[in-house]
Amino acid sequence: MALISKRKSRNDFYGKRIGIFGLGPRLGVTHIAVAVSNFLSDEAKLKVRLYEQNGHGDISRLIHALGGSETDKEFTFHRVTYVPFVNDSELLSGPDCDCMVFDLGRDFLRAKNTLRLCDIKIAVAGDAVWLKNEYDFLKELAAGNTDISNWRLFVNLGDPARIKEKEKYGMITGCFPFEPDPVYPCRETILFLQEAFKK
User: Fold this and answer.
1) So where are the chain's domains?
2) pTM of the model as a whole
3) Are strands 99-103 and 17-22 parallel, antiparallel or unpaired?
4) Where are the alpha helices (DSSP H) in the chain?
5) Taking residues 67-73, what's their average pLDDT?
6) For the domain with range 12-196, which CATH number is right: 3.30.450.20, 3.40.50.150, 3.40.50.300, 3.30.160.100?
């Protein structure tokens, strides 16, 4: 996995806003968003808010599974605050936290306004042969005038032997490891994310 420029400050290192979206359905975007949020909270000691903008109610279900009684309200667990909606004024002004993580689902057109505000953008992809056409979007992005130096490509459960072919898009690329519990990321996930966010 490639490295980028030197660390400036705690927030510059990880980015104030991180947007995570999928190139296709059911690729584990929420799972990865929860793992990233808990990694930033545990390893970097940042105050993190995880917002849902995918329209599927995944964060509400997670809040309920974690013991929250009102799933339409924000809920803090293990130092991460889970928010089942995105408030536009909060998005623009930035609440009292070190980092905002956005679970954007797979609708890029709906997510692009939020992504525009993000310091780091993470595309989640699959590695199955029938998902190859989902990379067409990255081809367009790489061919355009978009600055993709702050983008990451996480191939969920990808084959490390095939990761080189995905580096052609010009963004930091890696195979996101098997993670059974993203609220308490395992050592392999922690090492992967340390490298993915290294400056």
Assistant:
1) 12-196
2) 0.87
3) parallel
4) 10-14, 29-43, 58-65, 88-93, 108-117, 136-143, 187-196
5) 79
6) 3.40.50.300
